[in-house]
Amino acid sequence: MALPPMNHYRQGMGLGMSGGGAGVGMGGVGSIGGGMGGTLGRKRVQVSYVIRDEIEKYNRFGVNSLQFDPVQNRLFTAGRDSIIRIYNTANPDEPYLQSMEHHTDWVNDIVLCCSRKNLISCSSDTTVKVWNSSRGFCMSTLRTHKDYVRALAYAKHKELVASAGLDKAIYIWDVNVLTALTASNNTVTTSSLAGNKDSIYSLAMNHSATMIVSGSTENVLRIWDPRSCQKQCKLRGHTDNVRAIVISNDGSRILSGSSDGTIKLWSVGEQRCIWTFYGHTAGVWTLQANEAFNTLYSSGKDAQVLAWDIVDNQQPCRLICQEDCPVLKVLLVEEAQQPHLWISTTNTNVKRWPLPSLPFQHSQHVSNRQNQHPAMTSSTNNASGNAVGQTTAAFSDLTNSSASGSASASASASAAASPDGDKTPPSLPPPAMPPPPLQQPQQPSLSPKPNFCITGGSCIRQYHISNDKRFLLTKDSNDCVALYDVVLVRKLQDLPPGSFDQRVADMTAKRVFVPSWFSVDLKTGLPMIHLEEQDCFSAWVSQRDSGIAVDSLPREPQVAGGVAQPDSKINYGGLVLQALFEHWPPTRVRKEDGGYTRANMYFSVPQHTPVVLSESTGRTLFRLLVRDSGGESENSILNETVPAWITDILIEKNLPKYIKISFYLNPYPSSSVKSLRKDRLSANDMLQIRKVAEHVVEMWRTESLPPGAPPPPLPYHQQQQQQPPPHSTNQAASSDAATGDQQQKPAEELVEILINDTVLDPNMDLRTAKHFYWKSGGDLVLFFRRRDDRKHANRK
Q1: Is 530 helix (H, G, I), strand (E, B) or coil?
Q2: DSSP state of 765
Q3: For strand 220-225 and strand 272-278, is the pairing parallel, antiparallel, or unpaired?
Q4: Is 518 helix (H, G, I), strand (E, B) or coil?
Q5: Where do the segments described as Disordered lie (predicted)?
Q6: What is the DSSP string of 369-408?
Q7: Residues of the chain with CATH 3.10.20.90
Q8: Which residue in 32, 376, 437, 633 has the most C-beta neighbors within 10 A?
Q9: What's the sign of the alpha-carbon dihedral 216, 221, 226, 229?
Q10: Over the range 25-35, which residues count as b (16 or more CB within 10 Å of their CB) and which as e?
Q11: What distance in Å separates the CA atoms of residue 763 and residue 562, rounded to the nearest whole number?
Q12: What values do phi and psi take at 769, rounded to 5?
């Protein structure tokens, strides 16, 4: 069909395939597309990674959408955990087949198209993706939307798909063009529908692609003709967000479900609501009508799945089943031997409920419905005996539709009065019959229990970060507790259920503090770690304290005799980045023999770990797996996408800067030691308190000795450095022995360092001391005193 003036976009291609039948998650290439690369220099880019198993067979969060292939008995689930999964419903013992992974946020909607050969998905990561549904790999990525993409609509007779979301835009895509895209031919043409004033949450299109209807937080339905991309009218009546829309095949009627708890039946020809269905006690989130458009199934926040008679509105609704949590999607399968409903909820399970024979199921043709709707009699009778389905022929000019003269006049008047050109009646005509009171569905449910259940996994709901910023404690929806290592990117152990609060208390009691260098996101039900420029390199720690491969690491000799210091420092953020991009060619280190070695000599992370580069707003730029960063296509995209703050560390090999703490060092007020200097000092934040004590002892030796007084003993570590060489005389040894055992005492046994009246542990560092004990603003103030002064004060 002829399309109006188009917009042209270059789209990123998904070139990677998921692993074979076992369903290994793929890390295909998705270009930043659409000229986005030129804007990266002006936008902050963050790196994220997900700590997870290599194969995630089970939905880890709610399932937003479902599609079913009756020929191959395959069910597709669109998960809030960002994964599309395929299940074989003919194998109830082991239904999992494969995972389709390329999205980085909730998958909000999916549709099967091209005789179920392809699948289209949309996500909160702002992308629309085209998949090969048989082999499970991403064929192309459409990056036209600027915000969450919430809904898709499919016209199977024309192979067109429409997408819409929170950016208020609707785009129409030719599926045959999308499936033919290649790496060299990656330009796609789309038409857009503009005019929505609020975020779009629902979308529908009839099979012949002559009508698109959208629902939004504006609480109205807008109708477009996709052939001309022109708005046709606006339907008012709901009092809250329109969450679900169904269009009859002939385009004459629309059903809409809203967060206001009602379902409305609209006549397109009359541009008004002709019936309101009352029965739900909370918002209606999903609708599904049968092919004959005489029976409707609905559900939503109240978890009731109801069946309605569209033909005879006087029939009470029937309760099909009662789910245990809010329903996100109802999918009707009529082609099966016994019709049934697939139902997904905010829980992770997906259930199949058999459909019994309903007392109001009809065998008559749709045209007989005019006998049930007096409000539609005039419009259908004026059509020269044609069925209601003929309304579609007049859709191109709704103001001249086959409605009564008064209805046409009202529509024309409203078009002139509407400030934005919408052809909207100035006021909503009353329905043909007064709305009935809230219907109570018949009890008990017609389907007492499901006959198939795809069991989901658990969703992580709560987390706590350890004080040393190394470990992540989590609690999931089953109250199970687990401990993760954020640096090594793996789960360490499962802990006893119900132990979360006690473990948090134990973690909190540990007197150690490391600055935050990452943030945690649980939006997909799995721990996603975000690294950003301003915090990523804040965590310098002692290698000895970290326990990371202490015995196997090369050390730089930093003291006399080539003996390495036992407390050399490592940076958590820098090491993790090196591990995540260890296969990226520019980061590899050339060896003397001409080979290469990875930059991170400490550890590697699991190779299946997903890595995501995104804008700080959440808009995804690129997703890959750790093991795939050495690929030719991935390397090319990384060269354009990785920001300078990362390449400075990985490629230029510049070490992150140490974090400094400024402080004053004064004698304790009751101490016998007089003030030395009033200088403002500065040191690395991980400097241990024992080093401050050594500094005090050194100051005593050089600046505060009274005339004739013997020098205080050297700190133990300085004694080790100043041992006489083997060929020296015994005079030095005898001189050392004259001072007795005092000479062997380390500095922390000679002097105490305090904050206010609290004596600090010599093993504590400055940042920990400041975090836990310094309650004032400004620079830190440390006090020192001889240990003998405290003993003397205690005797008094």
Answers
A1: strand
A2: B
A3: unpaired
A4: coil
A5: 361-387, 399-449, 703-745
A6: GGGT-GGGHHHHHTTTT--GGGGGGGGGGGGGSSS-HHHH
A7: 658-703+746-795
A8: 376
A9: negative
A10: bbbbbbbbbee
A11: 24
A12: -60, -45
pLDDT of res. 454: 96
More confident residue, 551 or 599: 599
Helices (H) and strands (E) counted in the chain, each on its own, are 13, 48
Outline which parts of the chain fall under CATH 2.130.10.10.
57-276
124 three-state secondary structure: coil
Contact 370, 310 (CB under 8 A): no
Other CB atoms within a 10 A radius of the CB of residue 651 amount to 16
Q: What six digits make up the tokens of 295?
A: 């029976």
Most confident range (mean pLDDT) of 80-84, 178-182, 418-422, 549-553 is: 80-84
* d(C-alpha 346, C-alpha 368), whole Å: 38
Return the amino acid letter for 255: L
Q: What angle do CA 450, 452, 454 make, to 5 degrees?
A: 115
Peptide bond before residue 712 is cis, with ω within 30 degrees of 0:
no
Count the neighbouring beta carbons within 10 Å of the beta carbon of residue 593.
6
Structure tokens belonging to residue 322: 């009662």
Per-residue model confidence (pLDDT) at position 18: 35
User: Using an 8 Å Cβ cutoff, are 381 and 373 in contact?
Assistant: no
Between residues 188 and 384, which one has the greater pLDDT?
A: 188
Query: Which residue is associated with the tokens 């080093």?
Result: 691
Q: What is the pTM of this model?
A: 0.79
List the Cα angle 123/46/553 in 5-degree steps.
Answer: 125
Neighbours of 326 (CB within 10 A): 18
- Say if residue 582's pLDDT is above 50: yes
Beta strands in 170-311 (DSSP E): 170-174, 187-193, 200-205, 212-216, 220-225, 230-236, 242-247, 253-258, 262-267, 272-278, 284-289, 295-300, 304-309
- C-alpha span between 127 and 165 (Å, rounded): 10
Q: Two tokens at 33?
A: 């597309």
> Nearest-CA neighbor of 572 among 611, 514, 527?
514
- The residues near 727 (Cβ < 8 Å, ≥ 6 apart) are none
Residue with tokens 């090999």: 653
Name residues whose C-beta falls within 8 Å of residue 103's C-beta, 6 or more positions apart in sequence: 82, 83, 84, 121, 123, 125, 127, 129
Is residue 51 over pLDDT 60? yes
Q: Which two tokens stand for residue 704?
A: 């505060």
Which strand (E) or helix (H) includes residue 137?
strand 137-142
Closest to 120 measured CA to CA, from 57, 163, 70: 163
Amino acid at 173: W
Report how far residue 626's alpha carbon sits from residue 576's, in angstroms, rounded to the nearest whole number: 12
Q: What is the 3-state secondary structure (H, E, C) of 610-641?
A: EEEEEECCCCEEEEEEHHHCCCHHHHHHHHHH
CA distances from 205 to 94, 231, 233, 254, 709 (A): 36, 14, 15, 10, 96
Asked if CATH classification 3.30.70.20 holds for the domain at 57-276, the reply, yes or no, is no
CA–CA dist 31, 113 (Å, integer): 24
CA distance 444 to 519: 48
Instruction: Mention every residue, 6+ apart, whose C-beta is less than 8 A from residue 237.
Output: 264, 266, 273, 276, 428
Amino acid at 688: Q
- Which pLDDT belongs to residue 778? 86
Task: Answer left, alpha or beta for residue 5, where phi above 0 means left and psi between -120 and 50 means alpha.
Answer: beta
Task: Give the angle subtended at the CA of 464 by the CAs of 458 and 470, to the nearest 5°.
Answer: 110
Strand partners, 590: 596
Side chain identity, residue 389: G
pLDDT, tens digit (0-9, with 9 covering 90-100), for 730-742: 444 444 443 444 4
